[in-house]
Design goal:
By secondary structure, this protein is an alpha/beta fold. It contains six helices and five strands; from the N terminus they run αβαβαααβββα. The longest helix is centred in the last third of the chain and has 20 residues. 44% of the residues are buried.
Length: 158
Amino acid sequence: MTDLDSAAAELVAALKRRGETLAAAESLTAGLVCATVARIPGASAVLRGGFVVYATELKHELAGVDEQLLAEHGAVHPEVAAQLADGARARCGSTWGLGLTGVAGPDWQDGVPPGTVHIGLSGPSTRVVRTTSETGDRDMIRTASVGAAFSLLREHLH
């Protein structure tokens, strides 16, 4: 079991104990959050669903991110991550929503360097964004982003 699988198993167990659920709207991770949680036995009790919103317009159409925000700041912005999390939570009817947007590389996007990641968390009395700077190739950045998202959620479950 990888470190990421262990973190996912810990989250599934914690969410089950609390009777809570999770959904995600993912851009740079393209479903890796949901896929990692789904690998854990019993995940169906806590994973409501999610959206892969790789294309900018889908961030608005599927997750409800404000079009003006996207037009003014681009897809890689802290408030976009927050709105992705809100949208996942609302549209999937979950206790918690995660929203991830960033640049996996190798090229810059909208003036933002590779490795920049914004993670939004939406939950009961919670709306927070964490920005991280990850290093490595695309897979390493995407994997580290999932780990950072799990860590952010875990902090709010304790």
